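Quick illustration, no need to memorize.
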Amino acid sequence: MSHYAVTNPATGETVKTYDQISDAELQKVIASADHAYRTWSRTASIDERAALISKVADLHTERRDELAAIIVREMGKPIDQCLGEVDFAADIYRYYADNAHAFLADEPIDLLAENATAVMRTSPIGVLIGVMPWNFPYYQVARFAGPNVVIGNTIILKHASQCPESSAAIQQIFHDAGAVDGVYTNVYASSKQVADVIADPRVQGVSLTGSEAAGSAVAEVAGKHLKKVVLELGGSDPFILLSTDDMDYAVESAYGARLDNSGQSCNAAKRFIVMDNLYEEFRDKLTAKMLAATPSDPTKDGADLGPLSSVGAAEGLEGQVKRAEAQGAKVTTQGKREGAFFPTTVLTEISPDSDAYLEEFFGPVASIYRVSSEEEAVKVANATQFGLGSYVFTTDHEQAMRVADQIEAGMVYINVVLADSPELPFGGVKRSGFGREMGRFGAAEFVNKKLIRY
């Protein structure tokens, strides 16, 4: 029985189920993707591939209301944030279409030998499989499929099991944009079938955004079969407040960075590390702001946050908070969990020996730490197995640069949050994964950098 279904987390209603693809049909998908790579990808010009992705961007914009409504049903994101996600996905596709020639241009090499020339030429490598998460159903696909179709790779896309409707809508957009069969194919596949796809000699790489466990499993199969892999996994991003001349701005930034997507974002600020002289004011103001935000109907404009993605996700987060409290943390919250709706929560007085000190809280839970020096702030920030994003707030630019150099993360944002943009590379280090998406670097992962000397 298929595990692909749209189950509205706000109501608990299962709206529709979808059949899992058969092994025989999956083989046809791989063959079609390989055929498209060996025909369309090798004959379509850069302009033609860019035009396809530009049309994909336009169709996201044209269908934004329909696309947004789908993901409200699937994973409970507030409607205004759903619309913003669709717009961001369109911007990413458009960015790669607009920059196709620049990213695929030959790069000359200065040779030591005289009377010779050499260039590095960017070429596609073939069929790729993407394994995408539920928390940003359109954005995640855009940052994988956009650059790779422009490059000339072909895509098999396995989305999260709770996002079958949005994944079908994306495939329809590619079809309506004029993609030939095999350029982009959505599949409702099991984990075992994904492993079989990765192992297939016609498939050259895999990109996964998801949990550590999923990343480890995919990397193991990819390594066994010598396939290129990009992983974007969890994060427990620090928000370091060293100094400020505007506490309200710092608190508003912290609040926005924590509650974006109802707290279900890999690169959300989750751990707030605050200098001793600012701690009490920041703690009190952030706590008041957090507790004033309440989960509500995600279909209504202006909702602070919606339900979590599922009852199971909410139950798991509830267990983490209870365990943190049992291990000595102070828990400040308002209300109790109701189904998938989870109350905003603040944790303080967290012991370095507790599970909460190391865990990622994937929901509206903020952890606040008091530190007495810049050095201690950096130490606490780096005391995690994750290394995705980070945020540094200070009035001292030199200090900001110094701390940014010391933070073990793939991204550092200084005095700003929610500033992601198509041209900015996204990715992490440590157990947050490896490789980059978006920006120029996102168009350089699944390529053959071919040397031509003459």
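The chain has 16 helices and 20 strands.
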